[in-house]
Design a protein that fits this description.
CATH topology of the largest domain in chain A: Rossmann fold
Largest interface: A-B, 23 and 16 residues
Strand content of chain A: 15-25%
Number of strands of chain B: 10
Distance between the termini of chain A: 54 Å
Number of domains of chain B: 3
CATH superfamily of the largest domain in chain A: P-loop containing nucleotide triphosphate hydrolases
Radius of gyration of chain A: 20 Å
Order of helices and strands of chain A: EEEHEEHEHHHEHEHEEHH
Strand order of the largest sheet of chain A: 6-7-8-3-9-10
Helix content of chain A: 25-40%
Largest sheet of chain A: 6 strands, mixed
Shape of chain A: globular
Largest sheet of chain B: 5 strands, mixed
Helix content of chain B: 55-70%
Number of helices of chain A: 9
Number of helices of chain B: 21
Radius of gyration of chain B: 27 Å
Oligomer: heterodimer
Low-confidence stretches of chain A: none
Mean pLDDT of chain A: 88
Distance between the termini of chain B: 22 Å
CATH class of the largest domain in chain A: Alpha Beta
CATH topology of the largest domain in chain B: MetI-like fold
Chain lengths: 270, 518
Amino acid sequence: MASAPLIELINVTKSFDGERSHALRDVSLRIDTGGFIAVVGTSGSGKTTALKMINRLLEPDRGQVRFEGEAVAGLDAPTLRRRIGYVFQGIGLFPHMTVGENIAITPQLLGWTKGDIAARVAELLDLVELPRSYAARFPHALSGGQRQRAGVARAIAARPRVMLMDEPFGALDPVTRDTLGTSYRALHERLRMTTVMVTHDVQEAVLLADRIVVMSAGRIVADDTPGALLSGHAGAEVSALMAMPRRQAERISKLLQASSHEIPRRPPHG
Amino acid sequence: MDERFTDALSLLADYTSQHVLLSAAALALGVAISLPLAVLASRRPRLRFTVLAVASLVQTIPGLALLALFYPLLLGLSALTVKLFGTGVPALGFLPSVLALTVYSMLPILRNGVTGLLGVDAAYLEAADGVGMTSRQKLLRVELPLAAPVFMAGIRTAAVWTIGMATLSTTVGQTSLGNFIFSGLQTENWISVLIGCAAAVALALVVDWALGLIEAGAVGRRMTPTVTGLAVLAIGIAAAAMPMGGSHSSGYVVGAKNFSEQFILAELMAERLEAAGHRVERKQGLGSAVIFRALVGGDIDAYVDYSGTLWTNALGRSDLMPREAMLDALTAAMRERYGVTVLGALGFENAYALAMQRARAAEARTATIAELAPLTPRLKLGSDLEFLGRPEWAALKQAYGLSFAEEKSYNPTFMYRAIADGSVDVISAFSSDGRIAADNLVVLADVKHAIPAYDAVILISPRRRNDETLYAALAPLIGAIPVERMRQANYMLDRDTGKATVREAARFLEAGAGLSGR
């Protein structure tokens, strides 16, 4: 390993209640450029806390977080955050601004010219597959999926190299969720970004990520490729977690094989 | 048309514009202070508690009392600035009014501001941090815009309160729509009271509507309503400011306390000055102590006071001497101690006296206060708002051993009602009051001379002590108003039917004095 990792957590500990319980216990994690990492675990496992350490929305009690080889504690937080895209479940599109204005925020904070910003907003709407006319709409006039697309567009507006996503598609219906996940993965490839995505949905993690980090009670309990984790793991907790998507996939493929021999018919609950 | 109506209309423009300027200044100041304070308070829980507690406390002080409190405060400040910089600050009029109103306007703005800022959804704050806003950018671009509707509701409440309470500023010598209300109440000119109320209500509604337009435009991001609202406010303030230009700088200011005789005499003096070609401002409805201070401080130039009042209150004397000798001693002491000129006595006395219904007095065989004294434990006393707190009352009580079963204070108009309907048995009447004869009352003689003489005298402020024009206009009134004439003039106003205007009463006095050139 010659070059330093893009993002590094070194022995990070965090408690929100004066050390009575820990959100993170001595967590270390290296993330290299270009990866798509999913962080999974039950609620309270510390996955969101770990994510927010990276763009300094939270500060560690002990340990260090490094970004591009520099300790983030020594960087100006707003400047750091303008270099990192951030999308979360609540989305937080500002309701008093149009979709276009929401998308334009970070470029505006960075002092881009009006012309550059307008061109970038149009380009981004195309990229996240929203009609350009939506720039003039207010967020409340959009559907949940459309809002999440706009949220992604806002996060990547200033061409960050890194994207942090916290349950980005959690509140969406399964179909929209799948469509958005797939199109985001394509965007990740095309823009050659590094993505860290927190999710409680193991199936989503398996289908989208190159690498899965499993957290439990503030510690990392597994860290490997989806394939390796699916084919078996020493820990019972991780095995149980990973068995679920595999079982579901097996059942679905059996159903598909069976149905290919039958006459197609409408399912009973349409 | 009714002359009371046309008279009131002729004053409407001036009163309204002063009311508008006062309210606008207070509200602007209130917003300027409350907005940053609300931001700070929303950040710091301890500061929030303190600020809101203090603002709420201020709100519980009655508006009138708050205005009254700023007067001595500014007097003290003025004494300090005179010492430090050689110039004082005005303790009467615009300044105390605007300060009291500002303080009063702060609570709704602060409370709504804090509520609005604390109510901003945490998701938006996290998003603001996430896109890389500094805390200042977060405040200006996210928190304030999102809290704006709640903030604006607070500002609208404050505007309506301020416009309403500004009517009270009349009592500290600031002209406002309250002048209609206070002078109307004293002279029972209900048309004047109604016009004052209606104008204040209309003003509040228009301002609230304009602020509502601005808010609606800002929320819906439409230019037209916002621009219309702003234009209405700007034009209103500009129009109010226009006639102000210098008109108050060189004119005379004539003061009046808060009863009919004072209104008539002030009007008489003002009209004489106007007839001589001067601009005159009338400051009416001032309290006894306030008006003398205002004269000494140069906030007003002339008014009529009563020798006994000045003797006991301004000079703190309790010794008694014959009427003529007291007038001479008063004139010398006023000049020496305050630089105030006693121009002379008008020719009548307006003494504090105790009065009863004629029939009751005859029945009880009481013609003097001495004869009344033993009956007082079974009688109720009605007085005006000042009497019970004055040294004259203390002197009377001590001299005759009075101890009434009950003592109640009234606005003078209602005091006469109270004795007429038997709510009280004895009242503190004024000897020049036309209602004594008209209501069939009898004045009980002060046989022990416990209280001093009350010659009506014209006082001139120190800054006008060498003003020959002022002297020339007012000197002809000296010795020219006999008590019968004053009683008649007072009764022209203090009656229920066939009521005359203040101006008519003033002209009646002037004609009686043989001075009317018109």
